[in-house]
Amino acid sequence: MSLEARSLTFRYPRRGKKPVLEHVNLTLEPGERIGLTAPSGRGKTTLCKLLAGYERPTAGEILLDGRPLSHYRGACPVQMIWQHPETVLDPLLPLEVSLKEAGPVEERLLEELHIQPQWLRRYPQELSGGELQRFCIARALGRATRYLLCDEITAMLDPITQAQIWGFLLREAERRNLGLLIVSHSAPLLERVCTRVEVLSSPPEKTTPLS
Amino acid sequence: MRQLNRRQRTLLLLLLTLSVLLAVTLAGALLTQRATETDFFRMNRSPSLTFLFGTDWMGRDMLARTLAGLSLSIRIGVLTALVSAVIALLCGVAAALSRRADAVLSWCIDLFLGIPHILLVMLISLAFGRGFLGVVAGVSLSHWPSLARVIRGEVLSLRHAPYLLAAEKLGAPRGQIVRRHLLPHLLPQFLTGLILQFPHAILHEASVTFLGFGLSSEQPAIGVILSESMQYLTTGRWWLALFPGLALVGVVLLFAALGEQVRRVLDPSSVHQ
Predict the structure, then answer these.
(1) Can you say whether residue B129 is alpha, beta or left, with left for phi > 0 and alpha for psi between -120 and 50 degrees?
(2) How many structural domains is chain B composed of?
(3) Which residues of chain A neighbour B163 with C-beta distances below 8 Å?
(4) Any domain includes B84
(5) What's the pLDDT at A211?
(6) Which of A18, A198, B24, B186 sees the fewest Cβ atoms within 10 Å?
């Protein structure tokens, strides 16, 4: 019973031969909260995308309870919350529609995330990033979700809102025994919310002889 | 006008343009009978109050002929624009969804764009036996590539849009994704392309008829009127070509304005203006 990445290697097509991720291993148990940190451009977001099934690894595999993640149909049990909420909400749809993309969302979630009822009728460009992010969190917490990948989800928020959102996420994770992968540059945040912190090391530099 | 905002003004203009075009179409359809009426007692009259556009060498009222011609042109334009836009939509979506279809269709698009339009329209029109069918087939079969290319590009970029991928991951059914996310984003491009196809279609219909490969000469089409009146221009009967020509330009401009206004109304970045 875990989300497991085995020897993941990933390279973006046409970006040279050097992979972004090489032989990355990671195991996320239910109820566990892993913090992930690394300098920019090291592949944190790419790792999240791989684990959530947005990209396919060049080599290696992602197993959910021992079964490859790509075999799961319907709502994916691993949900990713993106760093930029405005890109994952369709600009032409009112938030109400985006929110209920895959079935109804519990009233309780909306209340706990302080989503105002009048926001539901608005379009994404009429709300701020922090307000949009709450919608993305509520939407990602569907019934099927068991693992949540949080890719710098509070980087653009003020400290009070950050605290509110993390408080809520920790309570929710506790209640539903969710596994959390939390990507952040903020060491104090990771220390506070995570059960353990991993540093994504850079792929071993090939020592190429100077020509 | 002042207290209305830009969106309302655009909508108003849109309605006005539409009603003018509709009026021309209806008037022309009703006047077709009068347009073919010959009366040799009133041949070659220059424009006057009774005959605003003058009369031709067979005593036909040029105003009625022009309106009937425009009406025919507009009907051909609507039909061809619809047909070619639907072809473009199907080809564009197919190209975006399958790599093999993309290779074939991209090659076809390049081929079609490489041949001068007028030549293609003439050939297809001839192959379809000229007349109404020939013109419609010629213009619609030669005008889909540019819109198809636009739609293909649009679908390609939409397929990798994070909100579409996220909806997929959230378990939204395929049909719902196409209906909610894909089509609404394609609609502005499609509608604008469709409407901008009209002026093209009308001009090509007129020119191919003018060259003698389109509609037959007894039909009151603008192209027929213009090509016949060319013979009389040198004898000083300028009104035969001037008014129908101006009217054609006017209708084409109206359609272009219509397309521009529809684009402004639908384009998300100018929605709140």
Answers:
(1) left
(2) 1
(3) 87-91, 98
(4) yes
(5) 40
(6) A18
Lookup: tokens for B242: 């001037």
- Give the one of B163, B171, B181 whose C-beta lies nearest to A75's C-beta: B171
Contact between B184 and A97 using a beta-carbon 8 Å cutoff: no
Give the closest-approach CA distance of A16 to chain B in angstroms. 22
Buried b (16+ CB within 10 A) or exposed e, B16-32: ebeeebeebbeebeebb
Of A87, A92, A140, the CB nearest to B268: A92
Could you report the per-residue pLDDT of A41-86, keeping only the tens digit for each?
A: 888 889 999 999 888 898 888 999 888 888 888 888 999 999 899 8
**Residue B134's domain is classified under what CATH number?**
1.10.3720.10
Give domain status of residue B118, yes or no.
yes
Provide the residue type at B62 as one letter. Answer: M
Q: What is the pTM of this model?
A: 0.72
**Residues in chain A within 8 Å Cβ distance of B160:** none
pLDDT tens column, B191-213: 888 877 877 787 888 788 888 88
Query: pLDDT by residue (tens digit) across B28-76?
Result: 777 777 767 777 676 666 677 666 677 776 767 778 788 888 888 888 8
Residue B120 belongs to domain spanning: 75-270
What gap in Å lies between CA B58 and CA A128, rounded to an integer?
71
